[in-house]
Design goal:
Number of helices: 5
Structural class: alpha+beta
Oligomer: single chain
Length: 175
């Protein structure tokens, strides 16, 4: 199942043939401007993904930050990455916590996305995604894409609804 448009932003998922009931084992990945993010073939629990993306939905419409939006892709990626995942102190740590910068991190923290960092920041007119696939590529591995404002929110919400419906059906089968 593909939700969204791969040439802008999309999520692709499918349940495995033997998906384990409520565990909902399957495959999932993001597409940003046609580039696949996540190890689709590895597979994961789509139930766990569903729980993670539910948290992302709460941040829909709350990713506007004019200052961050206008940074270079390298500065934007590094600033968010240092505050959210850094192993050393960052001069932006305090403001990042105060302003809840975790809302800009848009991938579920499950195994298939272990090698991926993806951040979405908006201004009043558009959405900007900066991402890195493969953690050992240094600065040359940082990419950016501008997408229609609200596209991510729509896709993530629809994905959640579909996975939640599957989960509810599986729960009803439980003794």
């Amino acid at each position: 199942m593909i939700i969204g448009n791969k040439s802008e932003f999309a999520i692709e998922y499918e349940l495995a043939a033997d998906y384990g009931g409520v565990w909902m084992f399957g495959m999932i990945c993001y597409y940003i401007k046609g580039k696949q993010i996540g190890d689709y073939e590895l597979g994961t629990s789509l139930r766990d993904v569903m729980f993670h993306i539910h948290k992302k939905i709460r941040d829909n419409g709350k990713r506007i930050h004019e200052e961050l939006f206008h940074l270079s892709k390298f500065d934007l990626f590094n600033r968010l990455n240092e505050v959210l995942y850094g192993y050393k102190d960052s001069e932006y740590e305090e403001v990042g916590l105060k302003e809840m910068w975790a809302r800009f991190d848009i991938v579920p923290r499950v195994d298939i996305f272990d090698e991926s960092k993806v951040f979405l920041v908006e201004d009043k007119n558009q959405s900007r995604i900066v991402f890195k696939e493969g953690l050992s590529q240094g600065l040359r591995g940082i990419h950016e894409a501008y997408i229609t404002k609200g596209a991510f929110d729509r896709v993530i919400f629809e994905t959640y609804k579909q996975l939640d419906n599957i989960y509810d059906l599986e729960l009803m089968k439980q003794p």
